[in-house]
């Protein structure tokens, strides 16, 4: 009897085990069939171009998000789905959701050689380029090219986009021949697909950057030809197109035209006493104002700052009223961008990380049959830490001058207010490189950058908790000296002067001597210590340079 019972129990256990195994196999098979069906559904959706109407976008967005949340998908399909979702959010102007969905797409496409993975890194590079973070943009482009060289990209839209991003990066590095080659490669890809819905807009984007290259290389007639070609485009006048193409066409178009107008109407008349030169300059300023209004209405203050700074540097006007107005705008922009970064680190980081974590936790409840809790936690941390690290890098970049490694002018203005409000005594050391223009003229701007970087290193060695160093602008640097170190202010200045005088410059075989002139001043409260230090710097300059005036 005992043997019969044991046998029955064993058979029953085996039956249950086999039943569970069959159920698991049925579930896996069913899931796989669902993924195949959904793969076809995703391919059908992705094969359709985005229709440019708000209602259609919302409808597509609802469809994509419903599939992503409730359907079983292959990893590549999920990645493609999130990438399309991100593009819709971009067109709607929701940048946070755009980059969050790009993060989701990258997660699912990790290890894939699909063109879509390349496109995501191109989008991230585009973001960094629009924020003038060129090092990070190059990192994203390198990741895109590591997945697949441009020549091997099969999707013509993505291939054209890749060439354009390559060209823009060359422009930012002043490699104009390579830039023109890359942009023309992008155009040739488009010319082979003239009837695609994206072709016209992509050609317009390429022409704008070609106009930029032509302006930078002095071919103003060709620059004007490219700008005039698209001056009446409906991408300017149609509201939805204006939103969609703001980043990739409208802002670059305005920048290129600003530079062209400056080259045509300010630089050309800079040395000519013409009755209408002031009117021509004012016409340029009016267009600059139109561009500034566009930037400020759409949160493109960095593009505005970059453009005005370039205009001031390369096309200086003799009109004092206009110059004063540009200086005022620059100061306002510096303050605005600094405040924006503070707000970002205080608010946006927490919100984005929290939203991403909560969203993935909710998704885990709905899709727990095929996503484990560990995957959700990994994904949440991936999004949260990536976002936090990204924003921390942005804030760090807003504090430091990338060339010299010192704090920037924004931080000087900010810290000076705190120092003055304390009513305690403090000192200012103003430093200017002697005859710096001759260095740029004789050896080139790259060698000039080496001089600026070397001086930054010399100055940084003098910093302490009570001595902070900043790049003030151009070839000027400034140090604030407080508390115990105030007694050594002139000694600090003298060491900087001496060390700079002793430097050996590898780019010159004739024992090139590069010196600095320095002015120092001490005061407190509302005393204009900066102006007195600047006056002493002027005395050092007029008395023969390469000296310290206290």
Q: What does it look like?
A:
The protein has 550 residues and is mostly helical. It has 22 helices and 5 strands. The chain has helices at residues 2-47, 54-70, 75-92, 95-108, 115-130, 134-147, 156-172, 176-191, 199-216, 220-229, 234-237, 239-244, 246-267, 277-297, 301-314, 320-366, 373-399, 409-421, 436-443, 445-460, 489-501, 529-542; strands spanning 426-433, 467-473, 476-482, 516-523, 548-549. A 5-stranded mixed β-sheet has the order 2-3-1-4-5, sandwiched between helices. Helix 10 (220-229) packs across helix 13 and helix 13 runs antiparallel to helix 14. It is globular and about 105 Å long. The N and C termini lie far apart (111 Å). 33% of the residues are buried. The model is unreliable at 268-275, 341-354 and 369-396 (pLDDT under 50).
Per-chain topology:
Elements lengths: L1 H46 L6 H17 L4 H18 L2 H14 L6 H16 L3 H14 L8 H17 L3 H16 L7 H18 L3 H10 L4 H4 L1 H6 L1 H22 L9 H21 L3 H14 L5 H47 L6 H27 L9 H13 L4 E8 L2 H8 L1 H16 L6 E7 L2 E7 L6 H13 L14 E8 L5 H14 L5 E2 L1
Helix pairs in contact: 1-3, 2-3, 3-4, 5-6, 5-7, 6-7, 7-8, 7-9, 8-9, 9-10, 9-13, 10-13, 13-14, 13-15, 14-15, 15-16, 16-17, 19-20
């Amino acid at each position: 009897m005992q043997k019969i019972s044991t046998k029955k129990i064993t058979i029953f256990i085996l039956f249950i085990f086999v039943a569970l195994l069959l159920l698991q196999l049925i579930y896996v098979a069913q899931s796989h069939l669902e993924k195949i069906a959904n793969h076809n559904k995703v391919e059908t959706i992705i094969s359709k171009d985005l229709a440019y109407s708000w209602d259609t976008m919302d409808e597509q967005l609802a469809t994509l998000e419903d599939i992503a949340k409730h359907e079983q998908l292959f990893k590549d399909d999920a990645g493609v789905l999130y990438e399309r979702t991100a593009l819709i959010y971009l067109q709607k102007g929701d940048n946070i959701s755009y980059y969050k969905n790009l993060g989701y797409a990258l997660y699912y496409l990790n290890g894939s050689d699909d063109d879509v993975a390349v496109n995501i890194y191109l989008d991230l590079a585009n973001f960094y380029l629009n924020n003038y973070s060129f090092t990070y943009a190059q990192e994203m482009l390198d990741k895109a090219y590591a997945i697949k060289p441009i020549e091997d990209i099969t999707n013509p839209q993505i291939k054209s986009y890749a060439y354009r991003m390559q060209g823009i990066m060359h422009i930012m590095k002043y490699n104009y021949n390579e830039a023109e080659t890359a942009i023309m490669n992008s155009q040739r890809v488009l010319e082979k697909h003239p009837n695609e819905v994206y072709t016209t807009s992509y050609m317009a984007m390429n022409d704008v950057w070609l106009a930029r290259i032509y302006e930078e290389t002095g071919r103003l007639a060709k620059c004007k030809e490219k700008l005039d070609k698209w001056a009446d485009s409906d991408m300017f006048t149609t509201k939805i197109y204006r939103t969609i193409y703001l980043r990739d066409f409208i802002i670059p178009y305005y920048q290129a035209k600003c530079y062209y107008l400056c080259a045509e109407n300010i630089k050309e008349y800079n040395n000519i006493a013409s009755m209408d030169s002031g009117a021509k300059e004012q016409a340029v300023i009016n267009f600059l104002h139109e561009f500034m209004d566009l930037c400020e209405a759409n949160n493109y203050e960095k593009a505005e700052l970059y453009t005005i700074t370039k205009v001031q540097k390369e096309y200086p006007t003799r009109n004092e009223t206009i110059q004063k107005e540009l200086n005022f705008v620059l100061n306002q922009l510096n303050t605005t961008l600094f405040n924006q970064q503070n707000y970002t680190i205080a608010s946006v980081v927490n919100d984005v990380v929290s939203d991403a974590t909560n969203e993935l936790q909710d998704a885990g409840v709905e899709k727990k049959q095929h996503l484990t809790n560990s995957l959700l936690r990994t994904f949440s941390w991936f999004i949260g830490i990536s976002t936090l690290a990204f924003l921390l890098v942005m804030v760090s970049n807003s504090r430091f001058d990338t060339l010299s490694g010192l704090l920037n002018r924004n931080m000087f203005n900010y810290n000076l207010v705190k120092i003055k409000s304390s009513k305690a005594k403090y000192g200012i050391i103003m430093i200017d490189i002697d005859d710096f223009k001759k260095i740029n003229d004789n050896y080139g701007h790259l060698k000039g950058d080496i001089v600026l970087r070397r001086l930054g290193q010399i100055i940084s060695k003098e910093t302490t908790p009570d001595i902070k160093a900043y790049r003030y602008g151009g070839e000027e640097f400034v140090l604030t000296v407080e508390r115990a170190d105030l007694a050594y202010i002139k000694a600090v200045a003298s060491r900087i002067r001496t060390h700079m005088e002793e430097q050996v410059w590898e780019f010159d075989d004739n024992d090139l001597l590069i010196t600095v002139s320095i002015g120092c001043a001490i005061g407190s409260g509302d005393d204009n210590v900066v102006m007195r230090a600047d006056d002493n710097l002027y005395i050092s300059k007029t008395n023969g340079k390469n000296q310290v005036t206290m």
